[in-house]
Design goal:
The complex is a heterodimer of chains A (about 280) and B (about 180). By secondary structure, chain A is mostly helical. Helices cover about 75% and strands about 0% of the residues of chain A. Classes of the chains: A mainly alpha (about 280), B mainly alpha (about 180).
Chain lengths: ~280, ~180
Amino acid sequence: MLNKIWFWLLLVGILYGFGKSAMLSLQGDPKITSAQLSTTAPLSTTAPLSTTAPASESVQPLAESPPASSAVDTAPDLLPANSPFRAAGKAMTDAALDAATLSVELCIGLIGVMALWLGMLNIAREAGLVDALAHLLRPLMRWLFPEVPDGHPAQGAMLMNIAANMLGLDNAATPFGLKAMRELQTLNPTKDTATNAMATFLAINTSNVTLVPISIIGLRVAADSTNAAEPLAGMLITTSITTVVAIVAVRTLSKRPRYAMPDAVADSVADSLPDQKPQTDQ
Amino acid sequence: MDTFSQWTIPLVILVIILWAAAKRVPMYESFVTGAKEGFDVAIMIIPYLVAILFVIKVFTASGLFDDMKLAGVWMLTQAGLEQYAETLDLMPLALTRPLSGGGARGILAELFDTHGPDSFLGKTGSLLMGSTETTFYVLSVYFGAVQIKKVRHTLSACLIADISGIIAAIVLGYFLFGG
C-alpha cells in the first residue's frame, strides 16, 4: 500500500509540475502572465476563477524556493528568461534535496529527546512504575490487545505512548511508541508483516483523544488569538469520535480475508495466546 | 490548561524518580542504559523519514494542492453552493495533515495569517488539525523502526479514522463556530 502511494504521489507530482509549467511557458505571453501574477490576491471565493486560475497556479512552485521567488518579486520583466518551466523544475529539485537534508536534521534533533525519554522510561520500568500503571488499565488493554500477554513490556510502552499523546507531548510519545513497536515485534511470528496488535496500536495512536494540543494552542497564541483554547472542547469531541471509528475500523478490517495474516502459523499463535496469559501473569 | 501541560513533564519525572527512590533502583545506571537505545532508534528512522518527506515535498512543490482547490471552488460555484466554498480553504490543510505535521502546521499558520485565528476558518482549521494525525509519518516511522513492510489493514483503518476526523471537524466547526 505504501509502495503504491509513494509511487503515485511522486509520479503525479512530477508529471503535473512538468506539464503545467510547460503549458505556461509555451502558451504564456510573459507580460500577461506577470501582470496576472502581481494582481492575484490570496484565493477567495469571489475571485473570477476562470481567468486567474492559470496564473495563480504558477505562483505556488515559484514561492516554494527562495531563489526563484525572489526573481519574480524583484523584476517581472525577468520572467521570459526565468521561464515558469525552469523555475518549476528548480523548485522541485530544491524540494527533493531539502527534504533529504531536513529529515536527517529532524532525526539528529530527535536523538537527544529519545535518549532522555528512554532513559526516564527505563528508570520507570525498573522501578515497576509502568507495570503498576499497566496493571490498572489491564482490562482495557486486554480488550484492545488480546494478542499481548499480561505484564509484557509492550503493554507499558503502549500505555505511556497513549498517555503522552493525550497530553500533546508528541516528542515524548515517539520514543514510547517505537519501544512499543519493538516489543510487539517480539510477539510477531512473521517479522515483515504487521500483527493485529500493531494495527490496533497505530490506529489508536493516530486517532488519539487529545486533551492538550500544545502545538495548536501555541500557534493560535502566536497569531494573537483572543481565545486560544476555544477549539479544545471541540477537539475532545472529534477525537473521541475518531478513536471509536478507528477501533471499530481496525477490528472490522482485520477480519477481512484480504487483510489476513500470511499463513496458518499466525492463526495458531493467536489461538494459543489466551491460554498463555495465566502463565505469564506475575 | 496550558499551565497543566507545561508542568506535565516535570511532574512525570518527579513521580518516576520518587517511585524509583522508594524502590531503591540505581537510577543513574538505569537511565544511561535506557538512553543508549534512543540513539539507535533515532538513527534507524532516517531512511524512512527521507523517503516520506521527499515525496511530500516534491508533491507539494508541483502546486497540485492549490489547483485542486481552485477546481473545487469552481464546481461549488456552478452547483450554487458558494456559501460552503469557504471550507475549501481548509482542503490543503486536510490533505497535508496525514502526510506531514510540519507542513500542516505551516498551512495552519498561513490560515491564521490570512483569515485570523478567531475567524470561522481559523477555529475550524484548529479543530481539523487537532482531530487528525500525521498518519503516513507515524506509520512509516513506527513500522520502519521494526522493519515491517506489509502493513495489512493498518493504513486503511487509520485513513478511515482520519476522514471521520476531517468530517467531524468541519461539521462541528459549522455547528460551534457558525458558518
